[in-house]
């Protein structure tokens, strides 16, 4: 029996709605540039006009910050600070991933385990990583180890929850089909589980990266003598507010680039009904 769907020709098929990102790329880019320009103008208005009489804020305008940043970028100490911070960030994220992915798989595949551990997980998740700083410093001393530990604590739970949610969303039928075709356990994992978890894990890593980058700066104010967080503290102590603003700009720019690396800039989703 032939259905009406079978008789539809390509000419009569309902076309997919046009993608406004493909249709108007120049307009979208112009809007983004306009927003950035507006923020810079507001920044200049606040620093150079509204708070022009303030001894601190008047020295942190966009022109002063850009000039200080240009000078910082040619200094070896800036490269050393960025390298140290990125090394701590990646180390903490690696530890969080190694621990968080197996935990997420366990919680997502074993409902009883997730239910039983939920109070403890939520308690630990909602405790600020910086609240652990005094204890971590007492246990691990100063230098890199406490900072890496705090970053790992910050990044752990987004990865656990993201992988757990992705595991629960996997289609069990795909694994059954693979087993019926004679696939081994590893082949089932490679063909169904890993592809199915790629998207959730990427999103979880992006969230974890954002939280870890935010925690990194205050964490580097405890017992270390280099890094971007230490640079912020050092600029403040030396009353070098131009350099303080420039360091803040540098931190934001690096964080933006890191997010782009994980695909944050490629997320162009929009509602089909225009909201």
From TrEMBL:
<feature type="transmembrane region" description="Helical">
    <location>
        <begin position="204"/>
        <end position="224"/>
    </location>
</feature>
<protein>
    <submittedName>
        <fullName>ABC transporter permease</fullName>
    </submittedName>
</protein>
<keyword id="KW-1133">Transmembrane helix</keyword>
<dbReference type="InterPro" id="IPR035906">
    <property type="entry name" value="MetI-like_sf"/>
</dbReference>
<feature type="transmembrane region" description="Helical">
    <location>
        <begin position="120"/>
        <end position="141"/>
    </location>
</feature>
<keyword id="KW-1003">Cell membrane</keyword>
<dbReference type="Pfam" id="PF00528">
    <property type="entry name" value="BPD_transp_1"/>
</dbReference>
<comment type="similarity">
    <text>Belongs to the binding-protein-dependent transport system permease family.</text>
</comment>
<keyword id="KW-0813">Transport</keyword>
<feature type="transmembrane region" description="Helical">
    <location>
        <begin position="89"/>
        <end position="108"/>
    </location>
</feature>
<feature type="transmembrane region" description="Helical">
    <location>
        <begin position="147"/>
        <end position="170"/>
    </location>
</feature>
<feature type="region of interest" description="Disordered">
    <location>
        <begin position="1"/>
        <end position="21"/>
    </location>
</feature>
<feature type="domain" description="ABC transmembrane type-1">
    <location>
        <begin position="82"/>
        <end position="262"/>
    </location>
</feature>
<feature type="transmembrane region" description="Helical">
    <location>
        <begin position="244"/>
        <end position="262"/>
    </location>
</feature>
<keyword id="KW-0472">Membrane</keyword>
<feature type="transmembrane region" description="Helical">
    <location>
        <begin position="63"/>
        <end position="83"/>
    </location>
</feature>
<dbReference type="InterPro" id="IPR000515">
    <property type="entry name" value="MetI-like"/>
</dbReference>
<feature type="transmembrane region" description="Helical">
    <location>
        <begin position="29"/>
        <end position="51"/>
    </location>
</feature>
<keyword id="KW-0812">Transmembrane</keyword>
<feature type="compositionally biased region" description="Polar residues">
    <location>
        <begin position="1"/>
        <end position="10"/>
    </location>
</feature>
